[in-house]
Amino acid sequence: MKRIEAIALAGRAAAQQDALLICNIGYPSRELFSVSDRPENFYMLGSMGLASSIGLGLAIAQQKKRRVMVLDGDGSLLMNLGSLASIAHHAPENYLLVILDNCCYGSTGSQPTCTSLGTDLAAMARAAGVRSVRRAEDREQLAEALLGQGVVVAGVEAGNAHVPIISLSPQEILERFMRCARPAPQS
Amino acid sequence: MNPSRAVHLGLRRAGIDFVASVPCINLQELLGLIDADPDIIHLPATREEEGVGICAGAWMGGRRPALLMQNSGPGNCINALASLDMLYGIPLLMIISHRGGRGESIIGQVPMGQLTVPLLEAMGIFHLSPSPAEAGEAVAEAWNRAESGHSPVAVLFDLDFWRSL
To answer: Residue B54: its chain A contacts at CB < 8 A?
Structure first.
């Protein structure tokens, strides 16, 4: 499946689940913005590698009241592998990390990552202690995995869709996201 | 006052309710106080940069976050502090054990110890280095600066601080 198809599926699932969605830097955020923009999406514009960590802090802050989904990439996760250990032991049940594995750095010219040589991110997640780890190789498998928790590694094709850059400022992205993400005041 | 208790009191005064940490020997007692505090969620991170991401997510979810670390940590965090916290305007209180100064016995602590303040200054990050008597107020003031300035701030505690009683 193409990455933008996987992103569209995840965006739709997040909307159906009323989930907050953290999206990785670069073309993935642009693709999500173009196919499934909603204020509950947080588009990363920097800090490559930290999508899974932002989602983890958010999921814990929500204290299981709100589902949190993260769209990460193979190259980005390889920059922050310690996050898998933190997720394994601290992620609440409202957390789902979706790794879109296209075996390359898709936003910088498709230079291959080590997953192209056989590095297995699902096995690494399991070895880190994540109990629920799934693989999804097609749309049906991904749609089912998006209902779960833990970690999903979705195989996607290399290549970016022709989508424009995000027309929101960082402050706009944060403000509208936080209006959705902050718990309602206690009455 | 005991230095660790003074910092903990400052965190409480600031309303900090979420802490991520990478340990330093000088933070040992403070981390114990935080673990025993029912009003603070504590998440140990594997690396300081991961902690910046975790704390940013916690802020988005309505928490007041602090990141506890040794001063080697800011060196691991610079890109995240700039292209996450400073880019979006996300506040963060950094509580930093500042090694490498007077009385340091580990030579490996000296280079980053000397670079910590220049790095913070180069990034335009507000920082304080209080005494134990000033610590509670300084930590609370630092958080207020972070929240009102939509920015990371740092409070540095050197070897003299932790050895004072």
So the answer is: 53-54, 56-57, 60, 86
Domain count, chain B: 1
Domain encompassing residue B129: 3-163
Domain holding B58: CATH number?
3.40.50.970
pLDDT digits (tens, 9 = 90+) for A70-101: 999 999 999 999 999 999 999 999 999 999 99
ipTM above 0.95, yes or no: yes
Q: How distant is the Cα of A110 from the closest Cα of chain B, in angstroms?
A: 23
Contact in structure between A50 and A22 (CB atoms under 8 Å) = no
Per domain, the residue ranges of chain A are 3-181
Tens digits of residue pLDDT in A102-133: 999 999 999 999 999 999 999 999 999 999 99
The CATH architecture of the domain made up of A3-181 is 3-Layer(aba) Sandwich (3.40)
What secondary structure, in 3-state letters, does A88-146 show? Answer: HHHCCCCEEEEEEECCEEHHHCCEECHHHHCCCHHHHHHHHCCCCEEEECCHHHHHHHC
Chain A contact probe: residue of B41, B60, B87 with most A CBs at under 10 A? B60
